[in-house]
Amino acid sequence: MANERVRVRGLSIFRPIIYGNTATLLTREERENVPAEHTHKWTVAVRSAAPAPGSDIVGGADNLGYFLKRVSFKLHDTYPNPTRNIDKPPFEVSETGWGEFEVTIKLHFIPESGEKALTIYHHLKLHPWSLSGEPDSIPPLEVAQKAGPVHSWQYDEIVFNDPYQNFLNVLTNNPPTPLPRASTNGRTIPFHIANPASLEASKGGVPEFTTLIVKDESERLEKAKKTIIAEQEKTRAALIAKEKELEQLQKMLNG
After folding, report:
1. Class for domain 2-209, per CATH?
2. Which residues form the YEATS domain (predicted)?
3. Max alpha carbon distance in the chain (Å)?
4. 140-155 per-position pLDDT tens digit
């Protein structure tokens, strides 16, 4: 039993998750039962990344309760009981509203993990992406209705370094469902729609994360990282040059 609380040094193990939200416009009948200003119903969630066959939700093939004890969602303060603690799957909160805001999500792991809670953030999205060509504009109601549900999801990997042996046993006994290499229904991330003319073609099926998307995203992030490093080096070189120039001017003034 004592060996179970020994960390396995030099080992890392991860679990893929997605977090985000789905939102739809309220029907006329639904709006009769909510505050007058509310326009949308939405669900914000933390799920396994792989899609469940035949499911009508994004991701969710695996039950994350084997390593997550609780997920806390901090909503906007205008909601009653804005901190919602979900102690068993599905780890999600559904509400209605009219505005977009940042949701703070805290992941609490099972005691066997010995891990501290992890905080992530998601900007709740209600309106379709780039329908009018203006990134921040809200499309007309009839256009948004044609677009169908709005999806905003982020893929991430929770990495556990030097896990305790008993927690490692839990993880290895519950391997995650692999991501499909390509979409099984033609819908993939990102979910943006280029223009209103393509709305009908985009509908049908639940968006999916795939290994190709994760690979492309990793490559994009690596490219962005290299660009940032190059800019930092350029700025550093310019700063060094200015410091030398200033040093020479000070010598001239003191000479």
Report:
1. mainly beta
2. 7-174
3. 84
4. 666 666 667 888 899 9
